[in-house]
């Protein structure tokens, strides 16, 4: 896309906390109708940049520089709350990562959409605003839009709630839409619907988009241009087809290498961990993790390029080998050809027969019958030593219900689960041999314990020198610094908490690990490291793994066998290769067609 008139112009933007500079003098523009992607690991400054542009930074964070919006006389960074209120929701809309946090739980979705419409006076009456909200939800392809407008957030699915948040952001036809990880927790089919809505609606109305995501394949399908951030700086920028097909900065190359989950190989994690802002190297922030760093990198490189919007900040970008080099391709020398068939005759650790779960709904009327909700229809499953089984399906398919039944956290309506040849439940004889990683790590971590104590919890002698050594080993294995062990869960990011949950589950070296979305909250670099850790545990220690994920690429990369669930029923199962190469059920084909793929 050829750049048009700048709509948003950011110049020398900084964000400072009391102890460090979090965003370090970045600058970029977004043209009218342009879609710009902002990518990078957690802690790189992506969300802070977006929040600073709208004056939404927390107290204690100080912005500097300049943020200008076309047609607005004042600088947004120095604007008053009254001035910013006239901009937010009308000229600029924002879609947040977590819809349940963005939506008011005690107000109906429709009234939250009409609030912005009435505040900015874009509809003359309350009735007109209400009709506009329903029309907008219909435009966003929400089934039964009038009913959805009357619903509270908890009565809607995750995808429907995200449409509600998108409706609030688009309610006044803004010139700029800022999307902060808008599809992270969504199934692939819903993710595709949401991104198609964003792209289609914005193309129709000429709306510009600043799209923040850690999913590079998604960015390649949505954005015209890409900005790569690391350590609070933009290290590379340019057209999406150039940056993602021929990256120049070592960090961009490392991100793309970590994204490549080619079956039969091992993805390359980025060495080391993202340092805290106060611990970043003085020169190039990536130098302590970069294979090409030398003495020259002690000085900060300036962005250079033939065009202002196609730059790279690296001293050695001209001397790097052509992309991809052997060191940046998936590691095919570490494949595991023997593993795929290994588990067929191995020890049976966990099995189910006719496993079923039905729930009784609320009675309809005084004498009405209580309806039955069929969460999981009869399912048979064998999990053997060294085997990796993936479970896929949309929200409400029964995946988490299955995992809770396997973990002994819920009672089946019919059928049962045998653990290590016994039918007395995971606590009777299984003990620490079965561990679980939950999707929401905060709910499973004791907030009163330090990270080091949490990881040591399942160990028999948790205060021993051996336990301390095991904890340090696991912290390193999941890509966390040693000092993270002294923190409490609330002091860590969501991705860091998920890594703590994985480390705790692996601490006692379990025979069976059940994992619900274990890597959904992780950056691509850490994801590669954790997936490598899980594969190693299954190949070297014969640990059995049952993993739920909405990321079908992760399932294909990690698992031997896959189960496809829909509305509580098993609709297809088989080896990963057979299901991916020749899916038989229309629903499986629909899921695979929705997987985002790199366009370049």
Automatic annotation (TrEMBL):
Record CDD domains: ABC_NikE_OppD_transporters
PROSITE patterns: ABC_TRANSPORTER_1, ABC_TRANSPORTER_2
Main location: membrane
Keywords: ATP-binding, Cell membrane, Membrane, Nucleotide-binding, Transport
NCBIfam families per the UniProt record, alphabetical: oligo_HPY, PRK11308.1
Similarity comment text for this entry: Belongs to the ABC transporter superfamily.
The protein's name: ABC transporter ATP-binding protein
Organism: Streptomyces griseofuscus
Gene responsible for this protein: oppD
